[in-house]
Structures are given as C-alpha cells and as structure tokens.
Amino acid sequence: MTAEALSYPRIRRAIVETPWAILPAKLADIMDVIAFRAAGGVLTAEEIEARLGAVTPRSRPQPRADVAVIPLVGTISHRMGMMAQSSGGTSVEAFTREFRAALADPQVAAIVLDVDSPGGSVSGIDEISTEIYRARGIKPITAIANTMMASAAYWIASAADELAITPSGEVGSIGVIAAHEDQSGLYDRMGVKVSLVTAGKYKAENNPFEPMTEEGRAAIQARVDESYVRFTRAVARNRGIAVDRVRSEFGEGRMVGAQEAVRRGMADRVATFDDVVTSTGRRGASQRTAAVAADVPSLTFEDQAEAALTAVHALQSRVEALTALRAGRPSPVAADNVPLIEAHRDAYLAIASAYDALLAAVPRPGRDQATTGLLLDFLATEARRNGVEL
C-alpha cells in the first residue's frame, strides 16, 4: 500500500454517505472502481467503461419530427462530473433542462423518455419526477424501458403519462441502499493512526477510520427509510395506486420482466422503441386510466389528499404555461385565446379553494369516514365542474 490509498477522500465519502436508488451490483461496481483508483491503480477510459457497464449515448432516431426523444441512460446523478465520463451516465440537471426545452418547444407535439439505466443517487430524483408528473396534460409523455428501468430511473419514468417496456426489458428495483466503508483495517496495515478532532456531537459519525456504531447505523437507516418513503409515495402517485401496493406488489426491490410488469401494473404495455415513438400522442387515453379509476376506492384518505394536491399543482403548471403563451411565445395554442386562459385560472382557483377545505377536514378523533367521504366527493365535484379530472 502507498499514500495513494488515501486518495479520492471526497469522492469516496460522497459515495458512501449518499442514499442510492440503484441496483446493488452497480453500486458495488462504482465503489470498486473508486477503491482501485484510490489504491494507485490506473484504468484506461475503456477499462472503466467495461467495469461500470457504461452505456453508449443513443443515436436518437427520430421516426417522427414532432416527437422529442430524451435519453435517460447509465448511472443517474444530480451533478455527474467525473462519473459522466466513466459511466456514460445522466446528469439530472441536464436531463431536466432537456425536458423543459421539449415541453416549451412549439414544434414538439409529444415527448418520449428513452430509458436504459440501473438508477443512481436519490438527489434531485423526486424533484424531476414531480415535475414530469405535473407536466401531464400539456403534451403526451411516454417513457419506455429500453431495456432497463431500475430504481431511480423508474422513480423518474413512472411519472410519464404512459410507461412502456420492450419485450426483453425489465423494470423495478424499487428500494434504497447506502453503504459504509470501514477503512480502519487498511490504515492499521499501513501503520497510520488517524486522530479526529471535532466539534458537534455527530460530526465524526460514520467516519471511515473506525467501525460503524449502532447509533451511526441507525442514522443511515433513517435516511434510507426517508428516501424509500418518498420513492414509494411518488410511484404510488405516478401510477395511481396505493402505497402499500407499490411496496408489496412492485417487486420489493427486485427487477420484473416485461409481461409480469404489465400484469402487476408497473407498466402499461409491451412495445418496441419504434412502436412507442410512432404511436405516442396518437393513442388517446391510456389503458391505465380505467385501472386507476378502479383503484381509487382502495386509496386511503391521505393518498387521495396527496393526489388532490398534485392535481392542483399540475393545473397550476398548465396555467403558468398558458400565461407564457399569452405573453407572446409561439405555440399551437393561440396566444390570444383569453377565454381558455381564464378558464384554466378559474379552475385552478376553484380547486385550490376546495383543497383548502379538504385540508381543514383531515380526519381527527371523532370524525367518521362518512364525513371524510363527503369531503372527498366535494373536491371531486369541484374538479369535474371545472373540467379537471382527479
């Protein structure tokens, strides 16, 4: 061992401190490459790509000029940096910019998310998933597992209007994982004694120079659990089902093949990439609409309340888009269509008011389910009256 074994402390710490929504084998590959480099090993770009299974950038075929194809490939991270070069991954920031550009482009009639990813870190994932969900209704958005849509990739892609999967594809790995590196044995063999001087009770918690304590493990577990809650709630919202069903029927952390994914409701149809691009935006209402409607009675009050709030946010996004059109941006929607804009505004205000009433009526001791049902019916009625489906 040499002094180079102490290299990359910031990168190594970032990897082990971050909760990941990724296939465990992929996280192990990433840690192995960093450890090898830190120990003085030298890898060519080709060797790094081979170890990490880097994905070659898509050539982006465009069977239809009015469809924007946005790739979501490789390891996903909020800010890629060196990872992008070594893993062929996707930056959440870059993906978000590309999605927003497609949404705003008047020449784009529909959007396809072309996904082949093992997942990535959880940072920024919930935000872009919610942004895609709120964009529903502005333009048709279809995601396709072509061929892998795992963990963070599924978190993002499940927010599309429709989720397709290629015949040989797989989706799932709905779970969160974190790792801790205990390097104390390595330092002992090197004859290095590390002394930490800290301020703050937990400042040195889970440091790599000593074994992890039970208290430290509990802290990591709490972060993992928090991310898992956000992950499963987002998927439940995106797919229009109860959270418990996501946790019990969507693989429990395993990957699921194409036909089984459709059977479980994790995907809407099996199709090739070309089929999806050719048909997107022309299929009308997705088959999942009926399934979602059938599932609504099984949702808890909290699930329905969250769905209502998301509907309000989605409508607000449409109002903002229409306002931008009114300001003069070219669009298929006439900029001078004032009645349409005002109708969206009025609908948003009405539903916002209805949701305020719903929040005020959150079940408390003594309030029966019948009362809760009436309040939910009130919200749904207000939505339908203003042309908005919840």
Which descriptors would you attach to this protein?
single chain; 390 residues; alpha/beta; 2-enoyl-CoA Hydratase, Chain A, domain 1; 2 domains; nine-stranded mixed beta sheet; 16 helices; 9 strands; 50% helix; disordered N terminus
Question: Outline of this structure?
Answer:
The chain has 390 residues and is an alpha/beta fold. The chain has 16 helices and nine strands.
Query: Strand-residue fraction?
Result: 5-15%
Measured between the Cα atoms of the first and last residue, the distance is: 61 Å
Average pLDDT confidence is: 75
Q: Which H/E pattern describes the elements?
A: HEHHEHEHEHEHEEHHHEHEHHHHH
CATH topology group of the largest domain: 2-enoyl-CoA Hydratase, Chain A, domain 1
- Known CATH architecture of the largest domain: Alpha-Beta Complex
CATH class of the largest domain: Alpha Beta
- Report the total helices: 16
Taking all Cα atoms into account, the compactness measure Rg is 24 Å
Roughly how much helix do the residues carry, as a percent range?
40-55%
Shape from CA axes? globular
According to CATH, the homologous superfamily of the largest domain is 2-enoyl-CoA Hydratase, Chain A, domain 1
Report the count of strand segments: 9
Main β-sheet, in a few words? 9 strands, mixed
| Uncertain residue ranges | 1-8, 82-86, 284-298, 331-336
- Helix-strand makeup class: alpha/beta
Number of domains: 2
